[in-house]
Specification:
The chain contains 8 helices and 5 strands; from the N terminus they run βαβααβααβααβα. The chain is α/β, with parallel strands linked by helices.
Protein backbone atom coordinates (compact mmCIF):
# COMPACT_ATOMS: atom_id res chain seq x y z
CA UNK A 1 0.00 0.00 0.00
CA UNK A 2 2.78 2.45 0.86
CA UNK A 3 5.30 3.50 -1.77
CA UNK A 4 9.08 3.79 -1.45
CA UNK A 5 9.23 2.91 2.24
CA UNK A 6 6.93 5.70 3.37
CA UNK A 7 5.74 5.17 6.94
CA UNK A 8 2.84 6.21 9.10
CA UNK A 9 3.95 7.36 12.54
CA UNK A 10 1.69 8.46 15.39
CA UNK A 11 2.58 10.37 18.55
CA UNK A 12 0.60 9.63 21.70
CA UNK A 13 0.74 10.65 25.34
CA UNK A 14 -0.75 13.02 27.84
CA UNK A 15 -1.17 16.75 27.62
CA UNK A 16 2.10 18.64 27.56
CA UNK A 17 4.21 15.55 26.84
CA UNK A 18 5.73 17.27 23.81
CA UNK A 19 3.89 15.53 20.94
CA UNK A 20 3.42 18.66 18.84
CA UNK A 21 6.98 19.83 19.52
CA UNK A 22 8.53 16.50 18.52
CA UNK A 23 6.36 16.02 15.44
CA UNK A 24 7.67 19.33 14.11
CA UNK A 25 11.27 18.28 14.82
CA UNK A 26 10.85 14.88 13.15
CA UNK A 27 9.07 16.45 10.20
CA UNK A 28 12.07 18.73 9.62
CA UNK A 29 14.54 15.85 9.95
CA UNK A 30 12.64 13.70 7.45
CA UNK A 31 12.26 16.58 4.98
CA UNK A 32 15.95 17.30 5.30
CA UNK A 33 16.59 13.65 4.37
CA UNK A 34 14.58 14.24 1.17
CA UNK A 35 11.21 12.76 2.13
CA UNK A 36 7.81 14.30 1.54
CA UNK A 37 6.15 14.65 4.96
CA UNK A 38 2.49 15.15 5.80
CA UNK A 39 1.79 16.29 9.36
CA UNK A 40 -1.72 15.89 10.66
CA UNK A 41 -3.52 15.78 13.98
CA UNK A 42 -6.44 14.09 15.64
CA UNK A 43 -9.19 14.74 16.12
CA UNK A 44 -8.94 16.93 13.05
CA UNK A 45 -6.77 17.08 9.97
CA UNK A 46 -9.56 17.87 7.47
CA UNK A 47 -12.04 20.78 7.67
CA UNK A 48 -14.86 18.39 8.59
CA UNK A 49 -12.76 16.54 11.14
CA UNK A 50 -11.67 19.87 12.65
CA UNK A 51 -15.37 20.69 13.05
CA UNK A 52 -15.76 17.38 14.89
CA UNK A 53 -12.75 18.36 17.02
CA UNK A 54 -14.53 21.56 18.03
CA UNK A 55 -17.66 19.54 18.85
CA UNK A 56 -15.77 17.07 21.04
CA UNK A 57 -13.20 19.31 22.75
CA UNK A 58 -15.41 22.37 23.17
CA UNK A 59 -17.93 22.78 25.95
CA UNK A 60 -17.94 21.32 29.40
CA UNK A 61 -17.07 17.72 30.35
CA UNK A 62 -20.15 15.50 30.14
CA UNK A 63 -21.53 17.09 26.97
CA UNK A 64 -21.03 13.74 25.23
CA UNK A 65 -20.96 10.25 26.69
CA UNK A 66 -17.67 8.41 26.19
CA UNK A 67 -19.36 6.18 23.61
CA UNK A 68 -20.65 9.20 21.69
CA UNK A 69 -17.15 10.68 21.74
CA UNK A 70 -15.76 7.40 20.42
CA UNK A 71 -18.22 7.45 17.51
CA UNK A 72 -17.43 11.07 16.68
CA UNK A 73 -13.69 10.34 16.81
CA UNK A 74 -14.03 7.38 14.45
CA UNK A 75 -16.21 9.35 12.02
CA UNK A 76 -13.50 12.00 11.82
CA UNK A 77 -10.71 9.39 11.71
CA UNK A 78 -12.34 7.48 8.87
CA UNK A 79 -12.48 10.59 6.71
CA UNK A 80 -8.92 11.60 7.61
CA UNK A 81 -7.53 8.17 6.71
CA UNK A 82 -9.56 7.96 3.49
CA UNK A 83 -8.81 11.45 2.18
CA UNK A 84 -5.39 12.37 3.59
CA UNK A 85 -3.41 9.54 5.20
CA UNK A 86 -3.87 6.69 2.72
CA UNK A 87 -3.38 8.87 -0.38
CA UNK A 88 -0.21 10.34 1.15
CA UNK A 89 1.26 6.91 1.91
CA UNK A 90 0.31 5.68 -1.57
CA UNK A 91 2.26 8.50 -3.22
CA UNK A 92 5.28 7.87 -0.98
CA UNK A 93 4.90 10.59 1.67
CA UNK A 94 5.58 9.94 5.33
CA UNK A 95 2.63 10.72 7.56
CA UNK A 96 3.12 11.98 11.11
CA UNK A 97 -0.04 12.18 13.19
CA UNK A 98 -0.40 14.09 16.45
CA UNK A 99 -2.56 11.43 18.19
CA UNK A 100 -4.39 8.57 16.46
CA UNK A 101 -6.47 5.52 17.43
CA UNK A 102 -4.68 4.86 20.72
CA UNK A 103 -6.08 8.14 22.02
CA UNK A 104 -9.61 6.79 21.61
CA UNK A 105 -8.62 3.51 23.21
CA UNK A 106 -7.12 5.39 26.18
CA UNK A 107 -9.46 8.37 26.70
CA UNK A 108 -12.83 6.89 25.74
CA UNK A 109 -11.85 3.27 26.48
CA UNK A 110 -9.56 2.61 29.45
CA UNK A 111 -10.10 5.96 31.16
CA UNK A 112 -13.54 6.81 29.77
CA UNK A 113 -15.43 3.65 30.61
CA UNK A 114 -16.10 2.17 27.18
CA UNK A 115 -14.96 -1.47 27.10
CA UNK A 116 -11.57 -1.33 25.31
CA UNK A 117 -12.54 -4.41 23.29
CA UNK A 118 -15.55 -2.48 21.97
CA UNK A 119 -13.22 0.32 20.86
CA UNK A 120 -11.01 -2.24 19.10
CA UNK A 121 -14.07 -3.76 17.41
CA UNK A 122 -15.11 -0.35 16.11
CA UNK A 123 -11.56 0.19 14.83
CA UNK A 124 -11.77 -3.09 12.90
CA UNK A 125 -15.17 -2.16 11.52
CA UNK A 126 -14.08 1.29 10.35
CA UNK A 127 -10.42 0.84 9.43
CA UNK A 128 -9.72 -2.90 9.44
CA UNK A 129 -6.07 -3.67 10.20
CA UNK A 130 -4.90 -0.11 9.38
CA UNK A 131 -2.49 1.07 12.09
CA UNK A 132 0.64 3.19 12.40
CA UNK A 133 3.99 1.55 11.59
CA UNK A 134 5.44 3.15 14.72
CA UNK A 135 3.63 4.78 17.62
CA UNK A 136 5.69 6.93 19.97
CA UNK A 137 4.26 6.86 23.48
CA UNK A 138 5.50 10.12 24.97
CA UNK A 139 5.72 9.26 28.65
CA UNK A 140 5.94 11.90 31.36
CA UNK A 141 4.70 12.38 34.91
CA UNK A 142 1.26 14.00 34.39
CA UNK A 143 2.04 16.84 36.80
CA UNK A 144 5.09 17.86 34.80
CA UNK A 145 3.06 17.68 31.59
CA UNK A 146 0.33 19.86 33.03
CA UNK A 147 2.91 22.37 34.29
CA UNK A 148 4.12 22.71 30.70
CA UNK A 149 0.54 23.15 29.46
CA UNK A 150 -0.15 25.86 32.02
CA UNK A 151 3.09 27.61 31.14
CA UNK A 152 1.97 27.54 27.48
CA UNK A 153 -0.99 29.73 28.55
CA UNK A 154 -3.63 28.67 26.04
CA UNK A 155 -7.26 28.10 27.04
CA UNK A 156 -7.64 24.62 28.53
CA UNK A 157 -9.88 22.19 26.64
CA UNK A 158 -12.33 19.88 28.40
CA UNK A 159 -9.83 16.98 28.62
CA UNK A 160 -7.20 19.18 30.23
CA UNK A 161 -9.65 20.21 32.98
CA UNK A 162 -9.95 16.69 34.40
CA UNK A 163 -8.57 15.53 37.72
CA UNK A 164 -5.09 14.14 38.25
CA UNK A 165 -6.16 10.50 38.89
CA UNK A 166 -7.55 10.62 35.37
CA UNK A 167 -4.06 11.46 34.11
CA UNK A 168 -2.49 8.57 36.02
CA UNK A 169 -5.08 6.28 34.46
CA UNK A 170 -4.33 7.48 30.95
CA UNK A 171 -0.58 7.22 31.49
CA UNK A 172 -0.89 3.63 32.70
CA UNK A 173 -3.23 2.76 29.82
CA UNK A 174 -0.67 4.01 27.31
CA UNK A 175 2.07 1.98 29.00
CA UNK A 176 -0.16 -1.13 28.91
CA UNK A 177 -0.78 -0.67 25.19
CA UNK A 178 2.96 -0.29 24.62
CA UNK A 179 3.59 -3.50 26.54
CA UNK A 180 0.99 -5.44 24.58
CA UNK A 181 2.17 -4.14 21.18
CA UNK A 182 5.95 -3.74 21.53
CA UNK A 183 6.58 -4.03 17.78
CA UNK A 184 4.42 -1.02 16.98
CA UNK A 185 4.94 1.09 20.09
CA UNK A 186 8.05 2.76 21.47
CA UNK A 187 7.95 4.40 24.89
CA UNK A 188 9.94 7.63 24.97
CA UNK A 189 11.06 9.36 28.16
CA UNK A 190 9.41 12.70 27.41
CA UNK A 191 10.65 14.37 30.61
CA UNK A 192 14.11 14.85 29.09
CA UNK A 193 15.07 18.04 27.32
CA UNK A 194 13.54 18.38 23.89
CA UNK A 195 16.79 17.75 21.99
CA UNK A 196 17.42 14.47 23.81
CA UNK A 197 13.81 13.39 23.24
CA UNK A 198 14.23 14.06 19.53
CA UNK A 199 17.47 12.03 19.44
CA UNK A 200 15.71 9.07 21.10
CA UNK A 201 12.90 9.24 18.53
CA UNK A 202 15.32 9.32 15.60
CA UNK A 203 17.23 6.38 17.09
CA UNK A 204 14.06 4.26 17.23
CA UNK A 205 13.31 5.06 13.59
CA UNK A 206 16.84 4.13 12.54
CA UNK A 207 16.81 0.90 14.57
CA UNK A 208 13.37 -0.28 13.54
CA UNK A 209 13.22 0.87 9.95
CA UNK A 210 16.89 0.67 9.07
CA UNK A 211 16.92 4.01 7.32
CA UNK A 212 19.57 6.72 7.36
CA UNK A 213 18.52 10.08 8.78
N1 LIG B 1 11.23 18.28 26.35
C1 LIG B 1 10.67 19.42 26.76
N2 LIG B 1 11.10 20.06 27.87
C2 LIG B 1 10.53 21.21 28.30
N3 LIG B 1 9.48 21.81 27.70
C3 LIG B 1 8.98 21.22 26.60
C4 LIG B 1 9.54 20.01 26.08
N4 LIG B 1 8.84 19.65 24.98
C5 LIG B 1 7.89 20.58 24.83
N5 LIG B 1 7.98 21.54 25.78
C6 LIG B 1 7.10 22.69 25.97
O1 LIG B 1 5.99 22.23 26.73
C7 LIG B 1 4.76 22.71 26.19
C8 LIG B 1 3.94 21.51 25.74
O2 LIG B 1 4.57 20.90 24.61
P1 LIG B 1 3.69 20.42 23.37
O3 LIG B 1 2.70 21.45 23.01
O4 LIG B 1 4.64 19.95 22.31
O5 LIG B 1 2.98 19.15 24.06
P2 LIG B 1 1.77 18.30 23.52
O6 LIG B 1 2.05 16.90 23.92
O7 LIG B 1 1.55 18.58 22.08
O8 LIG B 1 0.58 18.87 24.39
P3 LIG B 1 -1.02 18.82 24.09
O9 LIG B 1 -1.47 17.43 24.37
O10 LIG B 1 -1.59 19.79 25.05
O11 LIG B 1 -1.20 19.21 22.66
C9 LIG B 1 5.14 23.67 25.07
O12 LIG B 1 5.16 24.98 25.57
C10 LIG B 1 6.53 23.21 24.66
O13 LIG B 1 7.29 24.26 24.14
MG1 LIG C 1 -0.11 19.27 21.06
Amino acid sequence: MTKGGAKFISFEGGEGAGKTTQIKFLGEILRHAGHEVVITREPGGTPDAEAVRDLVLGGEPGRWSAKEEMLLMYTARSQLVRTIIRPALERGAWVLSDRFADSTLVYQGYAGGVDPDEVRKLHDLVLGPFNPDITFIMDIDPNSGMQRVHARAEALNQFEKRKSNFYEMTRNAYLDIAKSEPNRCAVINAAQDATKVSMDIVQVIKDRLGIAL
